Amino acid sequence: FWMGGPALSENQTPGADLDRPVFEVLKEFVTGGVNFPWTLAASTLLGALLMTTPLLFGTQPPLYFSDHVVGCLIIMVAVTAMAEVVRPVRFLNVVLGAWIAVSPFVLAGGETLAMVADVVIGLALIVLSLPRGTRSDQHYGGWDRAIV
Predict the structure, then answer these.
(1) Whole-number Cα distances in Å, 72 to 13, 16, 64, 97
(2) DSSP alpha helix (H) spans, the chain
(3) Based on C-alpha coordinates, what's the Rg of the chain?
(4) For the whole model, what pTM was predicted?
(5) Would the N or C end of the chain have less CB density within 10 A of its end CB?
């Protein structure tokens, strides 16, 4: 362990990994285990769109507060789900999308355009959260079965 050898159960020969070009090592450091499926990128954009509903659709509190907070949560969930081993977290956006679709009928503060926008954004978020997205060639040991 202290000498940097392989784990006891592994039969492998360790090799120097940092002899690669610097940019290749940095790319692996930043994007290793993470990819950017278009569905999660679109979910991130929908979250940002929700945060701008007062500017675009004239929403007022309390609907505006709901759109703003849930928009932040949608972005957080989508970005977290870009890591392959926690990809199932994306299903939280199904619940958040359902709330966004229902919220204009429960909360005051939205005109017809804002109500339609929230329903469309909520339903789109639900649809975008269902597919898994692309899978990289990397493997994560026992975590491979967690990638749903």
Answers:
(1) 45, 41, 12, 12
(2) 22-31, 38-51, 53-57, 63-80, 92-106, 112-129
(3) 21
(4) 0.78
(5) N
The tens digit of pLDDT for each residue in 43-101 reads: 999 999 999 999 999 999 999 999 999 999 999 999 999 988 888 999 999 999 999 99
Contact of 39 with 131, CB cutoff 8 Å: yes
Residue 100 CA, chain-centre distance (Å), reads 17
For residue 57, tell me if it sits in a domain: yes
Please choose, from the candidates 130, 100, 126, the residue with its C-alpha nearest in 3D space to the C-alpha of residue 114.
100
Q: Has residue 134 been placed in a domain?
A: no
Does the pLDDT at position 16 exceed 70?
no
Q: Is position 125 within any domain? A: yes
Q: Which domain holds residue 61?
A: 36-129
CB 109 within 8 A of CB 62: yes
Measured in residues, the chain has a length of 148
103 located within any domain: yes
- Amino acid identity at 146: A
